[in-house]
TrEMBL record:
Alphabetical keyword list: Cell membrane, Membrane, Transmembrane, Transmembrane helix
GO MF annotation: an example: mechanosensitive monoatomic ion channel activity
Localization per Swiss-Prot or TrEMBL: Cell membrane
Protein name in the entry: Small-conductance mechanosensitive channel
Family designation: Belongs to the MscS (TC 1.A.23) family.
InterPro entries from the UniProt entry: LSM_dom_sf, MS_channel_C, MscS_archaea/bacteria_type, MscS_beta-dom_sf, MscS_channel_2nd, MscS_channel_C_sf, MscS_channel_TM-2
Bilayer disposition of the protein: Multi-pass membrane protein
Native species: Botrimarina mediterranea
Transmembrane segments: 269-291, 312-336
Pfam families attached to this UniProt entry: MS_channel_2nd (PF00924), MS_channel_3rd (PF21082)
Annotated GO CC locations: plasma membrane
Length: 527
């Protein structure tokens, strides 16, 4: 029994040792097959392989990049922009040095100022070219490309041209050399400003992509870069140097990234506005046709909806047009949203009119073309928006009434129905025959061609007033003929009454004076 137990223990130990050895062998094999890992190289930019890359291509390249990769790209483009801004500052400093040389009376001082300007410009140019070269080489290495880029070709040709002009100016006095040097620097500043604007545009593309993919912690970096771009952009004018100011203005107007660019942007702005206006008109007409033919809505609602849609399309077109001018509308929209509560509080009356306008549209108490008495005004409804309703009165006045004044009071739609009763009242004297007067009025009503047979007209004596016996006449007519029927019957009845000798009495009051009371009062006063 003990012998079998010992054999089992030995077998278990042998199996365990075999498994441990197998694990060690597998680990050693895996370690042997792996290459030793070195330190991870720092990420290199990919989009700076060509600093003149088109904007659309740069957007395509930036789309699949991660946030970390975009941060590297942003740093690379920012460094290029910073070097270019430094190069512009060096050129501007060189202009000031040449001004000192032109103002100096001593030839040696003038030559020294020219040499300082050249050294400053050469140093800044070398730093900018070195930065571009490093960024391009890093991008080539990251993308696995070979061969030089064309980024260095233009500066090299510019340097050779400047060198030729410098050699040719050796025969001139120092002041002439300073003037030539100043002209070269002013021309260089215009070119450098174009290059700076191009770099700023490409940096903005990367920053926009980074902003969409980043968290709040990266927003500070994006904002910092954008503030820097804003700080170094534009042109600087020296009022003390007329030639430099004129060269800066003319150079900006002629430059591709300056005057030509803004002229093209202005053209796009106007074109987008015109297109938006045309599209808004077409959309409004289509919506009005759809509401009129397909949906049973009032003309008031049709006009309001069509006009609102037209304004919305125009507003969208204006936003697109502003982007054509390179104006960022995001802060404007954010400011409007932030001020929404304040604006809403300040426009309480307008919001009340808006709500009343919606209630009028929903309940449809009147429509365009109706004669309405509402808000203390009686007239023809011309149009309505969400704030007010426009009336055209019969004495040719145009009155705008707030919607809350209309909805909060009694609304009388005079022309809502196609038929309307004409209420007339005639007074005759107490000595006249009222039955004969009724017959005359009834004949006049029956003879009028615009009086409707149904409902039947009513002519009846209904009141014994203080000065007259009043007879009411109530014929019916079409709403459009109401005013004509009223005036015609009134004229005809007056004419017939005069012919038949029936009087229309004036309001009169009888005064009775009692003489004995007056005499008693006089005798009492004498005693």
């Amino acid at each position: 029994m003990a012998r079998h137990f010992l054999v089992a223990q030995l077998r278990f130990l042998a199996t365990t040792l075999a498994l441990v050895g197998l694990v060690i062998c597998l680990g050693a094999t895996a370690s042997f097959g792996q290459e030793p890992r070195g330190e991870t190289p720092p990420p290199q930019p990919k989009t700076t392989v060509d600093t003149a890359i088109p904007i659309e291509q740069l957007r395509v390249l930036a789309r699949p990049l991660t946030r970390e990769e975009l941060e590297v790209e942003a740093d690379a483009w920012f460094e290029l922009l910073r070097k270019k801004a430094g190069q512009i500052s060096a050129a501007q400093l060189g202009v000031k040095k040449t001004n000192d040389a032109l103002a100096a009376d001593d030839e040696d001082a003038a030559k020294q100022a020219i040499d300082e300007a050249s050294r400053v410009m050469d140093k800044a140019e070398a730093e900018s070219e070195q930065a571009e070269r490093e960024m391009a080489e890093g991008a080539q290495e990251s993308l696995g490309l070979d061969g030089p880029t064309h980024a260095d070709d233009e500066p090299e040709s510019q340097r050779s041209d400047q060198a030729d002009r410098g050699e040719g100016s050796g025969t001139h006095p120092a002041t002439d050399a300073a003037a030539i040097k100043k002209d070269d620097l002013l021309a260089d500043i215009t070119t450098l400003q174009d290059e700076r604007a191009a770099l700023a545009d490409r940096l903005e593309v990367v920053l926009a992509s980074l902003e969409r993919k980043s968290l709040d912690d990266a927003d500070e970096k994006v904002a910092e870069y954008r503030k820097y771009v804003l700080a170094v952009s534009g042109i600087e004018l020296d009022a003390k140097d007329a030639s430099a100011t004129w060269a800066a203005i003319t150079g900006w107007l002629k430059s591709r990234e300056g005057g030509q660019r803004w002229l093209w942007n202005l053209g796009k702005f106007l074109l987008v506005l015109m297109a938006s206006y045309l599209v808004a008109g077409v959309v409004a007409s289509l919506m009005r046709w759809l509401l009129e033919r397909r949906i049973n809505m009032s003309r008031l609602a049709e006009n309001l909806i069509a006009r609102t849609i037209k304004n919305i399309v125009m507003l969208i077109g204006l936003a697109i047009a502003l982007t054509a001018l390179e104006i960022d509308i995001t802060p404007i929209i954010a400011a409007i949203g932030a001020a929404g509560f304040i604006i809403g509080f300040a426009l309480q009356g307008t919001l009340s009119n808006f709500a009343s306008g919606l209630m009028i549209l929903i309940n449809r108490p009147f429509d365009v073309g109706d004669v309405v008495s509402a808000g203390g005004v009686t007239g023809l409804v011309q149009q309505m928006n969400l704030v007010s309703t426009t009336f055209h009165t019969f004495d040719n006045q145009t009155i705008h009434v707030p919607n809350n004044e209309i909805w909060g009071n009694v609304i009388t739609n005079i022309t809502a129905n196609d038929k309307r009763r004409v209420d007339l009242e005639f007074g005759i004297g107490y000595d006249d025959d009222f039955e004969h007067a009724e017959e005359i009025i009834h004949q006049v009503v029956q003879e009028h061609e615009l009086v409707l047979d149904e409902p039947e007209p009513v002519v009846v004596t209904h009141e014994l007033a203080d000065s007259s016996v009043n007879i009411v006449c109530r014929p019916w007519a079409k709403t459009s003929d109401w005013w004509k029927v009223k005036t015609d019957i009134t004229r005809s009845v007056k004419r017939r009454f005069d012919q038949e000798g029936i009087s229309i009495p004036y309001p009169q009051t009888d005064i009775h004076v009692y003489q004995h009371q007056l005499a008693s009062a006089q005798s009492g006063s004498q005693t």
